[in-house]
Amino acid sequence: MIKQQGLRAGIKSRQHGAVAIIVAICLVVLIGMLGLVLDLGHLYVTKTELQNAADAASLSGAKELNGRLTGINNAISKAVETAGRNKFNLHSQTLVISSADIRVGACHTSGCMVPITSITTDALAANKTFLEVNTDRHNLGTWFAQVLPSIATNMPTSAVAVAGKYAADITPIAICQLANPGTTNELGYERGVSYKVSAANPIGPGTLYWIDPESATPGSCPVTNTNAGRPYVCAGKIGFTPVVGQTVNTNSGNSLGPFFEALDSRFDMYPSAAQCDPATAPPDTNIKEYVPGSAPGLADQWMNTDPIQQSITFVDSATNGECKPNKPCKAKPYSLRTATDYGVLWAGNRPSGATVAQWSTLYSGNTATSYPETSPYAQTSGDFFTPPSAAHQPGVPKRRVLNMVIVDCSAAGGNCRPVTVLGVGRFLMQRKASLPNSDKDLYVEFGGLLPTPLPTSDIKLYR
Fold first, then answer.
1. CB 277 within 8 A of CB 235
2. Residue 71 in contact with residue 452, Cβ under 8 Å?
3. 247 and 133 in a common domain
4. Per-residue pLDDT tens digits for 325-360
5. How sure is the predictor about 188, in pLDDT bands with cuts at 50, 70 and 90?
6. What is the Cα–Cα distance from 98 to 83, expressed in whole angstroms?
7. Which DSSP string do the residues of 255-313 spell out, in sequence order?
8. CA–CA separation, 334 vs 341, rounded Å?
């Protein structure tokens, strides 16, 4: 009996020891698992902090890219500065990047990217519209998880972000380079002079070159019909950035009526055919038209001789005679012009540094009798100003100013035809494009080339 009791006591004692071992093992596993959760949470939070910093740095840097070396340098400074305003590792360390962590490219994929430090000239910067920021690897020391077998004492993490231009402030219309008229010009255009876009065409009058708003790849035109193109015309944006020296795709086969009506959203016109939404295609703050006539606010109120037409006279490119269909035309050479060869002048623009006193010299005897300062279009009240409807006020300033690509039309025409981009010009719509008469056309006053090769654009993250 006594022996049995001793045996049972020994077994019980050994069981106590086994339980202690099991509890100890379980504690190690439980603590390790808890530590793994905490360390993975630490890693996740830090990864998110780095990604947010990379996103912010790439977005701020991409906004500076303007097709020139100055934009490249500004992008570096802005990206580095923005990254430095962010912290990681549970907000305990300041993120530091350098130009070595930044790449740029002509598209958002990795294969397009080159080190930003390799861009040393304007020519190399011309098509760089995307910027990549890499935060580099950062090792995080584990807290508890290393008690488990085979768990590293450090966990590496990093982040990469790419941002770039995706909705350029370009109306999807191409206007052709004109012959030098014999005076100060920019790709054949004169500031303050109005042009009929369908006549500003060396191939022959009567055709507008709409450009595909989604693709600059030769032969690839995903938007080939009026319905798909109208939203871009309404908003005045395209889905890529046209680069000087590269190409856009022209399409002369679109129905003009709905496109003209879409352009007129800038004048607070929203017919059903245009399918424009005031929320995304608001009117201008000033919707007054500047046309020939004899009513308050019209061009003859400040011009003398009174204009009898809307735009500059176009002539045959070879003979300087009448501009005829299917033959190249040009703006009438400066040496051949008289006052009546001009249309509405200076509705919103003037030659750089020019004064009203110079009109007779600039425009062959034309004078300004009561030209308003500032320009008619810049007025905010009076005869030269008309606000949009109460439902759409106050409107958006300069919505009537169309950024349009100026292209080499010597081999243009037809659908999905690539043409070379020579520049981007600012053109003020002087009047509505879609009128209830036969003179439906786009009349624009030239305001100069954009100061940098790349237009302003919306910026978004790509990866």
1. no
2. yes
3. no
4. 777 888 999 999 999 999 999 999 999 889 999 999
5. very high
6. 9
7. -HHHHHHHHGGGGT---TTT---TTTSPPBS------SSSSTTSGGGTEESPPSSSS--
8. 10
| Mean pLDDT for the stretch of residues 208-229 | 83
Domain assignment of residue 286, given as a range: 173-456
| Pairs from 350-353 (Cβ < 8 Å, separation ≥ 24) | 350/191, 350/192, 350/375, 351/184, 351/190, 351/191, 351/192, 352/191, 352/448
Comparing CA positions, the residue from 187, 164, 167 lying closest to residue 177 is 187
Q: CA-CA-CA-CA torsion for 342, 344, 348, 354, nearest 10 degrees? A: 40
Is 182 in the same domain as 150? no
Asked whether the bond before 328 is cis by omega within 30 degrees of 0, the reply is no
For the chain, the domain total comes to 2
Number of H helices, E strands in the chain: 6, 20
Q: Is residue 377 part of a domain?
A: yes
* The two structure tokens encoding residue 174: 């191409």
Q: Where a domain ends, among 127, 144, 164?
A: 164
Residues 394 and 386: beta-carbon distance below 8 Å: no
What is the predicted pLDDT for the residue at 182?
A: 85
Sheet with 102-105, strands from edge to edge, namely 113-115, 102-105, 130-134, 160-168, 457-461
Smallest CA-to-CA distance from 97 within 109, 110, 81 is with: 81
What are 210's strand-pairing partners? Answer: 173, 251
